[in-house]
């Protein structure tokens, strides 16, 4: 059945209303008494945390300064949980307790005392009343994982009273999370909830049946969210890395304690590694698609050292819908898909047919990426088609996003069909053709893109074409204006070589020449959202052309040195 725009919007409102109503009925009245229960007498094991620590951050926290989410909050001696916080993202980071890992750098008893005081402050101010950011499902899941993983630091030399309060609060959070698990929206958060509950079932005293139930629920969610090609169902390259950082310690915890490992856990991890390497440029960075942002090199290295599936990256991820071209030292990764569901579109980007190109250790053409800590305005800007290395028509995204607070930032319309065809000649040419219909309803146009790597990886040839639904050139009356954008990594220097050529130079001296004799070529200001230091200025190459007068442009990138 094909819906009109208004019919689809009505369907989305009804769907969200039913979801909220069903969740409310399922949860019933939430009170602290409802989740009261026995307190475990001990913790059995503390799972490993693979994330790196920073002793400087530990020192700052012990001094009452919390450097989180790109901000530094000076508590001036007050509890961080009793004062106004600078942003929602900061609050989520604070309440999720991921920063506990840095406190592993503590070497003096006074530091342990101060840490316990901070944790006790949270138990006293938020541990007895359910509500707010502190009790969002994903925040609870992260906090449970952090408390379990870093319990040796938190409980070191602790008096009996604090030990009991800590375990009582932890057990309370696990019971509450278990109750709401089925109502969590689809996506990474839902899987993390199941991971936290599985980790709690083996790290805390539990019956055999409880351990098996947590294991079965984790298996079901892994099967739902880890695609057959190993990518996460959100289509975000970073999601796989974040999940592996918790799945690997969970696997090891099961093995160390002699429990049966969930049947889908090891196969899923084995599938995820090739997908992670698929998105990895040769310099070690992950491609910036669908919410991916900067990745710390040591985080990626800490995960990849457990990779037992080493081999060449795949040419395609057929279920996540990405393609990879590689010849010589040149790599091109291209997005050839769309969100796999409405719920999963909440963080998806309108970047279909966008690509990234790297040579050796240098990234030349990229997408703008997602901001790591910026506010909602920047987060939504980063999702627009213009923030990706692809073609935009009339400054409009190929997918439309909801502006409704009720619906949330889901995609409401846009892509319905993406066609892909590989045209490789092994060892000589890596070539790809793809098209999408994201502009068909609005402007009557299809976008086609050809990309080929030739000459041993020293030549990249591209073609972008706008056509009608029947494949013919646009009508003369079509007034649509198009811009092909090529976002250039901030480390790359650019200068004009001629009216139709732009010279690109990497810091190590490697140079490429971008050439396009069609349309209007320009170097323009840009924004790079995914820089580790935050949102920063950068530059982009643009080629502007009119759909009717010049429906096709051809361009090349040629290695000069």
UniProtKB/TrEMBL annotation:
Pfam families given in the database record = Hepar_II_III_C
The protein here is known as Heparinase II/III family protein
What the entry lists under InterPro entries is as follows: Chondroitin_lyas, Hepar_II_III_C
Tell me the compartments it is located in: Cell envelope
Provide the primary localization: other
Q: Which domain of life is it from?
A: Bacteria
Which species is this UniProt entry from? Sinorhizobium chiapasense
Residue ranges annotated for the Heparinase II/III-like C-terminal domain, each copy included: 311-556
């Amino acid at each position: 059945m094909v819906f009109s725009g208004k019919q689809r919007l009505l369907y989305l409102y009804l769907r969200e209303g039913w979801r909220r109503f069903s969740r409310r009925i399922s949860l019933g009245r939430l009170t602290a008494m409802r989740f009261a229960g026995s307190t475990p007498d001990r913790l059995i094991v503390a799972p490993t945390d693979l994330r790196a620590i920073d002793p400087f951050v530990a020192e700052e926290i012990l001094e009452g300064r919390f450097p989180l989410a790109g901000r530094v909050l000076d508590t001036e001696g007050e509890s961080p949980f009793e004062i106004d916080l600078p942003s929602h993202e900061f609050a989520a980071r604070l309440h999720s307790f991921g920063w506990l890992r840095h406190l592993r750098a503590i070497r003096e008893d006074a530091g342990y005392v101060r840490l316990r005081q901070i944790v006790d402050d949270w138990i006293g101010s938020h541990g007895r009343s359910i509500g707010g950011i502190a009790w969002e499902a994903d925040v609870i899941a992260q906090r449970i994982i952090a408390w379990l993983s870093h319990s040796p630091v938190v409980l070191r030399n602790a008096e009996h009273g604090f030990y009991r309060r800590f375990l009582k609060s932890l057990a309370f959070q696990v019971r509450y999370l278990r109750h709401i698990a089925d109502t969590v929206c689809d996506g990474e958060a839902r899987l993390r909830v199941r991971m936290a509950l599985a980790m709690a079932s083996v790290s805390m005293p539990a019956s055999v049946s409880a351990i098996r139930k947590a294991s079965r629920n984790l298996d079901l969610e892994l099967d739902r969210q880890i695609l057959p090609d190993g990518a996460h169902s959100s289509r975000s390259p970073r999601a796989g890395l974040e999940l592996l950082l918790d799945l690997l310690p969970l696997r090891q915890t099961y093995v160390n304690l002699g429990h049966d490992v969930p049947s889908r856990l090891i196969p899923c991890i084995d599938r995820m590694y090739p997908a992670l390497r698929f998105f990895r440029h040769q310099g070690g960075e992950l491609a910036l698609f669908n919410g991916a942002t900067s990745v710390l090199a040591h985080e990626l290295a800490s995960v990849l050292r457990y990779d037992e599936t080493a081999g060449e990256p795949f040419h395609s991820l057929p279920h996540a819908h990405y393609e990879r071209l590689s010849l010589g030292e040149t790599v091109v990764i291209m997005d050839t898909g769309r969100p796999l569901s409405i719920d999963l579109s909440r963080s998806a980007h309108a970047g279909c047919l966008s690509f990234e190109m790297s040579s050796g250790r240098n990234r030349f053409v990229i997408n703008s990426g997602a901001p790591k800590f910026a506010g909602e305005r920047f987060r939504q800007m980063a999702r627009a088609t213009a923030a990706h290395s692809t073609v935009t028509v009339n400054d409009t995204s190929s997918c439309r996003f909801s502006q409704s607070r009720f619906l949330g930032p889901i995609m409401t319309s846009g892509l319905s069909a993406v066609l892909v065809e590989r045209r490789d000649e092994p060892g000589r040419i890596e070539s790809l053709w793809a098209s999408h219909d994201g502009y068909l309803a609005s402007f009557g146009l299809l976008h086609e893109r050809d990309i080929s790597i030739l000459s041993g990886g020293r030549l990249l040839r591209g073609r972008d074409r706008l056509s009608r639904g029947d494949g013919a050139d646009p009508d003369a009356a079509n007034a649509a204006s198009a811009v092909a954008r090529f976002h250039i990594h901030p480390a790359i220097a650019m200068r004009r070589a001629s009216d139709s050529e732009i010279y690109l130079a990497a810091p190590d001296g490697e140079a490429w020449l971008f050439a396009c004799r069609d349309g209007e070529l320009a170097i323009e200001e840009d924004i790079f959202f995914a820089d580790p230091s935050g949102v920063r200025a950068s530059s982009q190459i643009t080629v502007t052309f009119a759909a009717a007068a010049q429906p096709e442009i051809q361009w090349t990138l040629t290695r000069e040195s």
